[in-house]
Amino acid sequence: MKFCKKYEEYMQQKEQKLPEVACKKLKNILKKCGLAFQSQRDPESNSSADGVVEIKITSCHNHCPVCDGAFFPSLVNDMSAVVSYFNERAKKLIELHQAAGLKKYFLRIKGKMQGEGTHVSSLIEEGKELVVYALINAIMIQKLLKKYDKIHHCCKQGPAFKSQAQSMQIEILQSPWLRELVALHINLRETNVSSSTAEAISSEGYRLTFNDDKVSLSCQLFDSIRLDIELTCPVCLETVFDPVSLTCGHILCKMCACSAASVSIVDGLKLADPTEKCPLCRKAGVYQGAIHLTELGILLSRSCREYWEKRLQIERVERVKQAKEYWENQCRAFMGI
């Protein structure tokens, strides 16, 4: 696996040690398996002796006790560390860009004193580094899963594991902060671009595309992997307005998400019932941890101005209506009516 060497070189070039996928360790585990499978473990077992959670994949007929007990748990731990680090760094970067007033002023002064160039240039550079970090880890994970399937003559374990990883929110390509960084890059590079005068906004591998009233966001910094983000709300079937990302990874308009979760815009998604399901994948409990995609909203408001203004007027009327009903109900409850 030649990419493993490139991956290790990339990680070694970093000034500080970053969370990474232990590709050599995982490759050695796969080598021990060979082509002969040992007897199956107890299917009810879900934890190893040292307390590490094991991931049991049931979609393939061939199970390997060695890999089920060592490969997948180790991969899960590595992925969790990588995603946690990435989300934390990306969140701080987004907050820096959205800082206002004195905080924004002091951040710019600090950047100049540290020789980081302009505030914008440092944001662009750090954002790109984080996106590359996310994509290169995603490629490494894909290659390891492909290697697993090749050794075990199975084509289902890799996709099944990725599905479980997504449900555990450790699939880095599904991170809402990765989508925010892609939008942030275009926001910092492009200004005053209207969808009526361009079919796409493109910058250094980042691309916002307009096709038959459908908008999509993509990122391709490596030939072997491409990130495509669908920006059509599955509820209203329009370009997402005031977008939020559910924990399952799907992006909805905030108003549509509240409607699907059976809560008012005043209460918000945090008060959604855990049994409420995503309208697209039907997974439950996806609303309370939803993240507001501010940078994506800024990008769409700049590039789809006519649509954004029209939708803003419609949403304002509905929000005022819901707020009025909410406070009327609160008054009735207080008065005991």
Automatic annotation (TrEMBL):
It catalyses: S-ubiquitinyl-[E2 ubiquitin-conjugating enzyme]-L-cysteine + [acceptor protein]-L-lysine = [E2 ubiquitin-conjugating enzyme]-L-cysteine + N(6)-ubiquitinyl-[acceptor protein]-L-lysine. Residues 1-162 form the SPX domain. It comes from the Eukaryota. One of its GO terms (molecular function) is zinc ion binding. It holds the Pfam family zf-RING_UBOX. Gene3D superfamilies: Zinc/RING finger domain, C3HC4 (zinc finger). Its EC number is 2.3.2.27. Keywords: Metal-binding, Transferase, Ubl conjugation pathway, Zinc, Zinc-finger. Residues 233-282 form the RING-type domain. InterPro entries: BAH1, SPX_dom, Znf-RING_euk, Znf_RING, Znf_RING/FYVE/PHD, Znf_RING_CS. Pathway: Protein modification; protein ubiquitination. The keyword Zinc-finger applies. It is an enzyme of class 2 (transferase). The keyword Cell membrane does not apply. This is RING-type E3 ubiquitin transferase. It comes from Citrus x changshan-huyou.
